[in-house]
Amino acid sequence: MRLPIYIPVLPAQKYSCHGCGSCCRDFTVQLGEADLQKLHEQGWKERLGQEYVVKFRGHSWLKQTDDGACVFLGDNGLCKVHAEFGLEAKPLACQFFPFMLSPNVRDTHVGISFACGSVIASKGADLQSHRGDVRRMSELLPASTPVPVKLQDKLIASEAEVSMVEAALDVWMSKKNISPAMRYQGLAWLITSLLRANLANVRGEKLRQLLSTLTDAVEHELPLLDWPAPTPRAWKLLRQAVFTRIEDPKIGDLLKRGKVASVLGQLSRSRKWGAGKGISPQTAGFLSIDFARFESTVGVFANQFAGDGAPDNALAKNVAPTHPLDGASGAAMSQQQDQAAMDDLLQRWIRATILGGRAWGSGLYGLPIDQGLGLILVNLLTALWLARFHAAGAGAKSASLLDLQVAVGRVDRTSGRAVWLATAGERLRVKWLSHSDSLRLLVRALV
Prior knowledge:
The chain is mainly α. The chain has two domains: 5-138, no CATH class; 232-446, no CATH class. The protein contains 19 helices and ten strands. The protein has helices at residues 33-41, 44-48, 80-85, 92-96, 117-121, 131-138, 159-173, 180-196, 205-221, 232-246, 251-257, 259-275, 292-295, 314-318, 327-355, 369-393, 401-414, 424-435, 438-446; strands at residues 5-6, 14-15, 30-31, 53-56, 59-62, 99-103, 108-112, 125-126, 150-152, 155-156. A three-stranded mixed beta sheet has the order 1-7-6. A hairpin with a 2-residue loop joins strand 4 (53-56) and strand 5 (59-62). Helix 7 packs parallel to helix 9 and helix 10 (232-246) packs antiparallel against helix 12. The termini are far apart.
């Protein structure tokens, strides 16, 4: 039996494909038997004059060129399969992107990947308008057994409990009249509280009361906490988390270099990222720079907001459109608008991740709710760190909207897809950062 399709209601989040082709230049696409049969019948080996499939570890994948582009990507930036035979002739993974399905016992949640430029920019139609296409594509997938969501460890969460967590975090993330500093430090405090709690005896209505108490207390609790600087170990663990989210092994490269050389290369790069000294290893989408240049950047939202109050929009409200701004005022207004858009981007990303079923369960390596939220918070930290790192590469002292867009896109590219993020080592990293109270301290240092 097919489960109902649940698409989150997010009016601020739009999407339509604009044919930019960026997803065809970066992703490694696995092919199923039906995909292989369709491509064979279309005669692409003869059309291309080369193989279009590569075998790796018992699976079939779309072949990529030396620069990482799909072999079907045309010079015009469009898919040759789509142009010749239409959308439904493409491999199923290509049709689905940027949508991602997360089935549970209640329904199938529909998430959306922020590795897509149109999603990042929120360009296009309402998400609900894609329901027909999502339903059509979902019916092409093999029927799968619904996966129950775990609350903590092996505790199975009820449908009501899952909804409670979703609602509580979404209410906080969409809260008006608070600064980004308060929003994301508060999110870190909430998630850390859940990671530290023993939820075995906090079920049903007790869980609702706990979530209500925590969300009501955030704004009062944060100013009362100690805020020491993150420890060197916390920064090291974060840089290692950055590496695991931007490492981009290509099948062609792995086959050419061999297993031993590939593993040794990854180990060397991992150590350099962990040390955070000298020149950073070459990474797709980011310049190799001296790690020290990161230290010269300021928090992502440092230039707009002071303290934990609401943003000051007085400048924008008091400027008459018929009177041009002087240079300083114009720059200040532009910066405020840019950083308001950055806050909007992060809100859309985190909310879509939680409401779209990508923060735990089948959408995130089968993780329980508390561990999944810890991983999502580390994703946020990684994006904030990468935005500043990207800005440093351009010689800037503060991150721009473009820097944050690049960072979020890169981090969300691996979330739920990169199997190494589900390892025991990654879970231990999140556990140490939460129990040492480093998650909220790192958020404060980065925003």
